[in-house]
Design brief:
CATH architecture of the largest domain: 3-Layer(aba) Sandwich
Number of strands: 17
Strand content: 15-25%
CATH superfamily of the largest domain: Alpha/Beta hydrolase fold, catalytic domain
Distance between the termini: 38 Å
Number of helices: 23
Number of domains: 2
Radius of gyration: 29 Å
Structural class: alpha/beta
CATH topology of the largest domain: Rossmann fold
Length: 685
């Protein structure tokens, strides 16, 4: 017995000694490979040349024709896609509710109007008590201010307009004030994009219907229609007024800049509506600004803006691009700018408001000696949010509920055929649709630059920078024990440094393992290093994912192409006839499935750990774009869900660890596909 115990102890000691000889896999996986700012620099260098520039034009007529084409194309290719094409034709519906006292000379009418079927917007119409003839109408929008339409500076602005004899509509912005609810979170907009319906259409229609409502007033002057707002309200102002020719005067205040400016000032990138999918395939914000010509526009910025869009860098590129267009129309006076220095922060306070009143006087009341741009004191007339509350229906649609309804019938062509010939036709069609929807980039050459190596018996470890053409660099760590006969690519949601257990398993199963971080994952996140003096607060790589979508790329397509490029490098340089892709976590499991679905000739097997149960979970759980940016690929759910992606792996091996319950329920159908193709399917427990 003593000898047996001694033997067992020696075995354990030998095993412990062998394990002690193993290198610290976590440290080896996490060792930096890329330069400190390399991912952010590569992102900028990729995006910047793809942003459209203003065309050279010689005449006003030439620009008018271009502007009309751009307007039509933005509406068709960006705004009214999917179900939104039906929403735009919905007749205007509105309902005036109670009227409450305002101050001397005006009253406040509470009104709600339908932006699209089932979505009511609360608003306040500040109406002069005495109205004769036709008067100017002003749509007052606002930004990311939780108080919404009750914001003091917005109330004072509307009061001043009414006291000057104008009709002022104070509309609630989705996600703010009365519409401040989880389903209206602006980063939930992309749930609609996932379904192939433009989420930015909700924003556009909410504002456009406001113009419809104003012009339905019997005293509205269609020749004097203005829009103004702060921050996100400035974005609404330029987006709406460039696309709706009925707007005759615009004053965006501190709320947008050119994409060329934003790419190097990421605090300007903004939420999903600021960077709508595919906008920059048609137009930049310079184009949108120029599309206002020859109508008057006042560009207001703040000198020391503590939020975004600082005057010093945001305003000059806009003026440089747009002033020549106004000169073509002989209207150089119609484009104006105002820089606020006091307080100079992110504001629409008195100085900025008076600049707007002055603009209104010059263009809506020219020659009227009685008109004054001085603000009429109105602080005592400001009312509480409760006093300004507008009754809404108990059920009111939002980004999330709209997406849930659309997702219910997706994907299209979802049923997996039950005969071999039909399956092959279906699979080929799905692969073609997938390549298009994820915008899979063309193959690029792959060069591997050594980034360090070590031998720690029994492992050989090499670090590489995989350079894809002249665009991206993918950090990779290669592990080999002895002479492996199999090759695997390893991915993990938190980056390769969090894949230690999976790496150990693959090594024990005899794989050569290449652990990589595609863009937006792990070390390859395009962020400024902490403490960077230029952008000390910017750590949100998902904003660049939005920007990629705006220029017509898809983050998930670029990531998938990087996985396939790594597989191609292994095949060419490690004599690997087949490559397995292993992934840990929902994000990278989706990448692995896409790689396998799109390149069956290159990916021999897929092993995924904790995959998503369905793409619909992102909608059912009301996730925001920031959580899983690559998932919200425009129209992806129209083409496939997880069930179809797994079926597209057949007849190659697919191993699923920790499958979600809804995946378990669908595995029987997947088993049938494998049996039909003559390959037994045996998912891991």
């Amino acid at each position: 017995m003593r000898m047996m115990l001694t033997f067992i102890l020696l075995v354990h000691l030998n095993v412990a000694a062998a394990r002690a000889a193993e290198p610290d896999l976590s440290a080896e996986l996490g060792m930096p490979i890329l330069g400190l700012r390399q991912p952010i620099h590569e992102m900028i260098e990729f995006v910047e040349p793809r942003i459209p520039r203003m065309p050279a034009v010689a005449t006003a007529a030439e620009w008018t024709a271009i502007a009309e084409r751009l307007r039509a194309k933005v509406l068709e290719k960006v705004v009214f896609r999917g179900e939104a094409a039906k929403w735009k034709d919905t007749p205007l519906k509105f309902e005036y509710l109670e009227t409450i006292p305002g101050g001397p000379g005006y009253r406040i009418k509470k009104v709600r109007y339908e932006a699209l079927p089932g979505l009511m917007i609360p608003a306040l119409l500040y109406e002069p008590e005495t109205l004769t003839g036709k008067v100017p109408v002003i749509l007052n929008v606002n930004g990311h201010d939780g108080t919404g339409k009750a914001a003091v500076y917005k109330q004072i602005r509307c009061i001043n307009q009414a006291k000057r004899g104008m009709l002022a509509l104070n509309v609630e912005w989705v996600g703010m004030g009365q519409l401040r609810a989880p389903g209206f979170n602006h980063l939930s907009l992309n749930q609609l994009d996932l379904c192939g319906t433009s989420g930015v259409a909700v924003h556009f229609l909410a504002q456009k219907r406001g113009i419809d409502l104003l012009l339905a007033h019997p005293h509205a002057d269609p020749k004097r229609v203005a829009v103004t707002g702060l921050s996100g309200g400035a974005w609404q102002t330029i987006f709406l007024s460039s696309l709706d020719p009925r707007v005759t005067l615009a004053n965006p205040v501190a709320g947008y800049s050119s994409f060329l400016t934003r790419v190097r000032h990421p605090k300007d990138l903004g939420d999903s509506e600021q960077t709508p999918c595919d906008l920059a395939t048609v137009a930049d914000y310079t184009h949108l600004t120029a599309m206002r010509a020859p109508n008057p526009i006042l560009l207001t910025f703040n000198s020391a803006d503590n939020c975004c869009f600082e005057a010093g860098y945001a305003l000059p590129p806009l003026l440089q691009a747009v002033e020549p267009i106004y000169r073509l129309y002989s209207k150089p006076h119609a484009i104006r700018s105002h820089i606020n220095h006091v307080p100079g922060t992110h504001n629409y306070e008195r100085e900025n408001r008076e600049a707007f009143y002055r603009m209104l006087g010059d263009f809506f009341y020219p020659g009227d000696a009685a008109y004054s741009a001085k603000e009429i004191p109105s602080d005592a007339e400001v009312q509480s949010a409760e006093q300004l509350q507008v009754t809404l229906p108990e059920k009111n649609e939002n980004f999330n509920t709209l997406a849930l309804a659309i997702a219910h019938s997706l994907p299209r062509d979802a049923e997996i055929p039950s005969t071999v010939a039909a399956y092959q036709t279906w699979a080929n069609r799905k692969r073609s649709q997938l390549r298009e929807v994820v915008r899979l980039p063309a193959e690029e050459s792959v060069d591997a630059d050594p980034a360090g190596a070590s031998v720690v018996d029994p492992l050989t470890i090499a670090r590489w920078r995989l350079r894809l053409g002249h665009t991206w660099t993918v950090p990779a760590v290669e592990f080999a024990r002895g002479q492996p006969t199999k090759v695997a690519i390893l991915l993990a949601d938190g980056g390769r440094k969090n894949a230690t257990a999976e790496l150990q398993r693959l090594l024990e199963e005899g794989y050569r393992v290449l652990a990589i971080d595609p863009v937006f994952i792990g070390e390859n996140e395009p962020i400024y290093p902490e403490g960077d003096k230029r952008e000390p607060t910017f750590q949100s790589s998902w904003l660049y994912a939005l920007l990629l979508g705006a220029i017509g790329e898809r983050p998930i397509g670029i990531q998938t192409a990087q996985v396939l490029a790594a597989a191609r490098w292994l095949q060419q340089n490690r004599q690997a006839e087949s490559v397995t892709v292993a992934a840990v976590g929902p994000r990278t499991s989706l990448l692995a499935l896409l790689a396998g679905a799109l390149a069956p000739e290159r990916i021999a097997a897929v092993e995924i750990n904790n995959p998503p149960g369905s793409l619909k979970q992102a909608i059912e759980e009301n996730r925001s774009y920031a959580q899983t940016p690559e998932l919200f690929c425009f129209g992806l759910l129209e083409v496939v869900d997880i069930r179809q992606l797994v079926a597209l792996q057949a007849p190659r091996p697919v191993r699923i660890r920790a499958p979600a319950e809804r995946v378990r329920l669908e595995l029987r159908e997947i088993e049938n596909v494998y049996e039909m193709l003559g390959k037994p399917y045996s998912p891991l427990p």
